[in-house]
Amino acid sequence: MKFFILSGSHRQDAQTLKVAKYVQTVLTREHPGAETHLYSLGGNPLPLWDEATGGASDVLWDPISAELKAADALVVVTPEWSGMATPGVKNFLLNCTAGEIGHKPGLIVTVSASRGGSYPVAELRMSGTKNNRLCWIPEHVIIHHAEQNLNAPDGAPDLGKEDAMQRQRLRYALRLLEEYGAALKLVRASGAVDHKTFPSGM
Q1: What is the distance between the terminal CA atoms of the chain, rounded to a whole angstrom?
Q2: How many structural domains compose the chain?
């Protein structure tokens, strides 16, 4: 199974990228046969989508599109900035089409420097997937106190309670995501999906 991981912070060397790399490590080490592709928006922004141009140029988007089409599931990692997901994440979702991510499962992972992180979850569940048909799974993960957590190797004796719990929760969510990936593959292959007749969500 192939996983596309989006690190949604615009900052270089962001805590969000650290979390995304941890997700990638867990998937490749603990999920037999898993392949991953990590795409970071840090120092690598896509042009703003607009109706006239249709978003990022083919030169920029075609390699991303190919990875999205090949993926069975997505993990979207975003920090909470002023109570919202980053503009880059929303812009990325605007660029995505149903042919790339439609009826594929997505896991939301948010990152907070303190005890926040819930607002981007609500925002992403509410908007950004109407036309591209990405299916967020019911489970999500919030990484609190990101600077203090997910730094030490797994199994380190000095892991804090919060750190250990967040690693456990993340692993649980990734196991579920893999199962949703297998299940929704059957939906896409069923012949029931008709984006030609119904190109836009309601």
Answers
A1: 30
A2: 1
Which domain range does residue 80 map to? 2-52+59-189
CATH of the domain at 35: 3.40.50.360
Sign of CA dihedral 135, 147, 84, 43: negative
In the block, residue with structure tokens 């270089």: 12
**98 to 3, 45, 70, 95, 171: CA distances (angstroms):** 17, 22, 13, 10, 27
Instruction: List pLDDT tens digits, range 39-79.
Output: 999 988 898 888 777 778 889 999 999 999 999 999 999 99
CB 86 within 8 A of CB 54: no
Structure confidence at residue 62 (pLDDT): 96
Residue at token pair 């297998």: 182
State the burial class of residue 127 (Cβ atoms within 10 Å of its Cβ: 0-12, 13-18, 19+). exposed
Give the span between the Cα atoms of 170 and 91, in whole angstroms.
25
| Phi, psi values for residue 23, rounded to 5° | -55, -45
- 3-state DSSP call for residue 33? coil
Which one-letter amino acid corresponds to residue 71?
A
DSSP tag of 35: E
Q: Is residue 199 part of a domain?
A: no
Residue length of the chain: 202
Backbone angles phi, psi at 29, to 5 degrees: -85, -35
Question: Is 197 within the bounds of a domain?
Answer: no
- According to DSSP, the residues that pair with 75 across neighbouring strands are 5, 107
Q: Does the pTM of the predicted model rise above 0.70?
A: yes
From the list 119, 122, 59, 132, the residue with the least C-alpha distance to 91 is 132
